[in-house]
Amino acid sequence: MPIDEIRTIRIDGAADLAFVDGLLDELDRLWAAVPRVPEEDRLLFGLAVSEIATNIVEHSPPGTRIDALVSAAPSALSAELRDTAAPAHIDLAGAAMPDADAESGRGLALSRTVLDELEHTGSDAGNAWRMVRIIRPASA
């Protein structure tokens, strides 16, 4: 069953692991406000948002800031993450799962798999990530 209205959260702060934790806490509050979003959509979308936010933290220099806007609408979940780091050169089309022995490098490939849309743009102002997951009908 879809949600009835758009719910939005916004969080900004330093690009550190505390930001990622705070973002995940805000997602938990969002899910409590929109319990009709199927659990699978919540989990997979949350995974993608967490992976992208963690990548920003891991690959940004000290002093970088992040702003996140996440929305749950009747038909889709969306997130926009913007940072103040130098533009990153990202090959989303080439993001693939690494070998089984690799200790990292799965975030972009996982995100591409679970999202319906994943976009990155870089400019002098920083980087912007846009993520969308269409809400699937709940299985019976």
TrEMBL record:
Q: Source species, please?
A: Microbacterium nanhaiense
The protein depicted here goes by the name Histidine kinase/HSP90-like ATPase domain-containing protein
Q: Read off the CDD domains from this record.
A: HATPase_RsbW-like
Domain of life the protein comes from: Bacteria
In what residue span(s) does the Histidine kinase/HSP90-like ATPase domain sit?
Answer: 15-132
